[in-house]
Amino acid sequence: MNEPLLIGNLARNPAENAMATFPNSEERQPTSAEGRDATPAAVHRAVAFIESNAETDISLADIANAARVAPRALRLAFARHHRTRAFGFLRSVRLDRAHFELLAAAGSGSTGPGAGAGTGRGTGDTTVASVAAHWGFATPAVFAASYHHTYGVSPDETLAA
After folding, report:
1. For residues 68 and 123, is the Cβ–Cβ distance under 8 A?
2. Which PANTHER family match (predicted)?
3. Looking at the predicted structure, is the pLDDT value of residue 135 above 70?
């Protein structure tokens, strides 16, 4: 539970879920400035920032700042010009990084008698749970479901390959 991405996601998710679920002032119509700022270039800058910083605990404000727009304009830009939201894209990047970490661990022979006990950080005893936590997935089952949906196999199968 000492993984920075996991801690950040656990702290941020309740607030994001509440904003998405309950009526709030965020539901107002975008201003003309937000509409003008919601460009493909803003999405491109956000995507570049996310890809460069996926291993750190970043917020929507951090991504919007890097894209040089307000958070609301960033949400609008992703809605207009991308197939997912900013955090959906961040999650997919982290899932890809977790996939490559599992592939690397499988190639190094990291499964074996002590495989369930380690932290997964280059110690030769990588576990699916440790990789999931490292990349900010709070629940190994949710990670496994997302992983299987994306890659067609379970993370355990990848690690055992």
Report:
1. no
2. REGULATORY PROTEIN PCHR
3. yes
